[in-house]
Write a structure and sequence with these properties.
elongated; six-stranded antiparallel beta sheet; 569 residues; six-stranded mixed beta sheet; alpha/beta; 2 domains; 14 strands; Rossmann fold
């Protein structure tokens, strides 16, 4: 049995930066009252968040943190299972998840996912869906059993009857069957492959002596042709190298052309500058009889003599420039010849490289063929080895066939077990056994609530409802108040079955606003009798807006909103 003891939370939804603490096992029945938005239903969200990392209501994780303080949302939950004391601490901003047993932290090195799996599977033995069916009946986010899908209904029933282990076993067996199927495929392929090897080896042995000599002769002929090719390639290389040497001797004659051109161009530039300056001076003396600077008269004999000298210098420069231009042209022809020879040499060297590659490839092919000849020779010399290989292949095939036989038997056994563990096997028989008791309990609670119908769940968890007035009613046919009575009766039945099975029994039962809406139509006093005297070994919490219910409960907790935060009055 899970005995919930207390819950504490702060900075969670409307709760501020101080702990709200509620004792969960103090009184048999407790009324929680308060106005809208006072935080009375926060208990449900805190409880589900602490246990399953998700709130009871449809609230985003980020919205669980108090919007004013915006951090340090903490839920602490204490409970006992089988004489062990547990404490769960879960928080947001920062994220926190810790499990304590008897004061010692568990699974410190485990991931949060692994810790949650331990909490649900080994400690609580209860998941979120089943928890909300047997512990909480809410008017907001609660999904009643009758509104669950068939798969989820089955999940709840299996948890209650403690037969989910069969589903776990089936999952394990399903994995084993898949592995076996995969292994069978591998063995079938291996069997075929080994059988093919045997046939190939037998054919190989038969053809060794028949074809080996022909192969050797053929390959030796190939080698001789390769040697001829190599000889031809080598002669070609030698011829090309002679040409290269000749070209290199010739190119040496033209190697200085570029430097000569550079020097001539430099001299040409100097002569052009000198001619330009002389022309400038000649123009000066031809155009001026007086000095432009000092205005003195230039001596006529000096001027004529200077003019004559400049004209001779200019004529000499022009002649030299013409000679240099011709020399540059001649050297450029030599430079082009040099480039042509260089390209021819490069082309010849490339031909040498390509021919050497052919020689290398030919030698590689020759060595490969020689290895093939040696392999054939080795096979001829080692016939016993090939016979031994054949014997080993046959032995391998026998081993594969034995493994295949054993695995086939195992697979057939697991397949039969899988059928037994299916929904139509053992689980169906157990569920079939308990269904009458479940239906009996449900109808018992319905009668206690003055709702006289005959309610039955079949083996597919579909309802069949008969009343004195109508036959073959469905759940959806009833009013909201009548649906609520059915939901309550099933909830009480789940708790009773769980207690009888000692599987997921718990001391806690919380009902959120059941008196405030659909339950108004039937007697509050009758319902109070049920939760007081019929629902045994339970600490019942009823959340309501109705302050007039105060005197019907042994304890009352009132929530109020103060300065924007929820707190116990």
């Amino acid at each position: 049995m899970i005995e919930f003891q207390r819950i504490r939370y702060k900075n969670f939804l409307a709760a501020g930066n101080y702990f709200t603490e509620i004792e969960l096992n103090a009184e048999p029945n407790t009324l929680i009252i308060g106005g809208n938005g006072s935080g009375k239903s926060t208990l449900l969200d805190a409880l589900c968040f602490g246990l399953f990392n998700k709130p009871f209501r449809q609230v985003n994780r980020s919205q669980l943190v108090n919007s004013t303080n915006e951090r340090d949302a903490i839920v602490e939950l204490e409970f006992a299972v089988n004489a062990h004391e547990y404490k769960i601490v879960r928080g947001i901003k920062p994220n926190r998840f810790e499990i304590f047993r008897n004061g010692k932290k568990l699974n410190e090195d485990s991931s949060a996912q692994e810790q949650q799996k331990t909490l649900e599977g080994q400690i609580l033995k209860l998941n979120y869906k089943s928890f909300t069916q047997i512990v909480i009946l809410g008017s907001a986010s609660f999904v009643p059993f009758m509104q669950l899908s068939t798969a989820h209904r089955r999940e709840v029933i299996e948890d209650l009857l403690d037969i989910k282990v069969f589903s776990s076993m089936k999952d394990i067996l399903k994995t084993r069957l898949k592995a076996s199927r995969d292994e069978l495929k591998v063995l079938e392929l291996k069997k075929q492959s080994t059988a093919d090897k045997i046939v190939m080896q037998q054919n190989f042995i038969k053809t060794i002596e028949k074809d080996s000599n022909n192969d050797i002769n053929e390959k030796q002929e190939q080698i001789e042709n390769i040697y001829k090719d190599i000889s031809r390639y080598q002669e070609c290389v030698e011829d090309i190298l002679v040409k290269v040497s000749s070209k290199e001797d010739e190119v040496e004659k033209y190697s200085d052309a570029t430097d000569t051109i550079r020097k001539l161009e430099t001299f040409q530039t100097k002569l052009q500058t000198k001619r330009h300056n002389n022309c400038k001076d000649l123009d000066f003396f031809e155009e001026n009889s007086n000095c432009p600077t000092c205005t003195q008269v230039i001596d006529e004999d000096f001027r004529l003599n200077k003019t004559e000298q400049l004209q001779k210098s200019i004529s000499k420069s022009e002649k030299s420039l013409s000679e240099i231009k011709q020399a540059i042209s001649d050297e450029q022809s030599r430079e082009r010849e040099f480039s042509t020879l260089q390209r021819e040499i490069t082309k010849l060297n490339n031909e040498v490289s390509q021919t050497n590659i052919r020689i290398s490839e030919s030698n590689k092919l020759r060595r490969q063929i020689e290895q093939e000849i040696q392999a054939i020779t080795d096979k001829l010399e080692n016939r016993n080895t090939e016979d031994e290989k054949l014997s080993k292949f046959k032995q391998d095939l026998k081993g594969v066939l034995d493994d295949l036989t054993d695995l086939t038997k195992t697979y057939e056994y697991d397949s039969q077990a899988n059928l037994l563990l299916s929904d139509e096997g053992v689980k169906r028989n157990i569920i079939k056994k308990y269904l009458p008791l479940i239906n009996q309990q449900a109808n018992r609670y319905l009668q206690m609530m003055d709702f006289y119908i005959n309610f039955n769940l079949d083996e597919e968890f579909k309802e069949k409802i008969e009343s004195p007035i109508h036959e073959n009613f469905s759940y959806s046919s009833f009013s909201e108040g009548e649906k609520m009575r059915i939901d309550l009766s099933l909830m009480f039945s789940w708790r009773e079955i769980a207690r009888m099975k000692n599987s997921v029994s718990t001391n806690l039962l919380i009902m959120d606003e059941v008196f405030d809406s659909s339950l108004d139509g039937f007697g509050t006093d009758e319902f109070m009798k049920i939760i007081r005297f019929v629902v045994k070994d339970a600490n019942i919490f009823v959340i309501s807006h109705k302050y007039e219910l105060h005197d019907k409960f042994e304890k009352c907790i009132e929530f109020k909103r103060t300065k924007g935060f929820s707190r116990i009055a």
